[in-house]
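Okay, is this right?
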Amino acid sequence: SWSIFEDRILYQLLVFLQPPSRHSFRLELYGGTHLPERCSNIRVVLECTCLREMGNTPCFVHPSKTNETAQHSPLLQNLCTGSYLDVEEIACWVQNLVQTAWEHLPQWQDWQLTVLPSSHSCRLLLSGPSDMQLCAVLVFAVEQGSP
C-alpha cells in the first residue's frame, strides 16, 4: 500500500519469506486455536535429503560417511534463535543488505538513504534533490501453507 503525508510518500511492502532449499517453515499454533502473530513462532525445519537424488548435496539432518557430524544450516546460524525465525535478526540482515546494495545503484549520488531504527521491519527513508521524501517499510511474512 502507499499513502501521502504532506511532503512524504509512504510505501508499505509485504515481503514473503521463502525457505531455502532443504528447509521448510512451520507455523506453530498457540494452544491449537489460532495462528501466531509474530515471527518468533515460525519454526525452521531441516529436511532430510539422504533419500533424494541430490547429487553431492550434503544432508543437514544426518551425518555423511566422510563427515561424522550433520551439516550446519546458515539460515539457523544467522537468522534464527534456536530453531525459530528471529524477526530482529532478519530486519538487521535486510537493513545491512539494502545499505550495501544502495551504494551500487546509479541513484545513490542524487538520493540519500537513511535506515530508520526498527527491530521488526526494515524502514528506509529516501531524501532526494527536491523536498519530497520517500519512506518504505518492508514488513516480513510467511505464507500459510507454503513449502
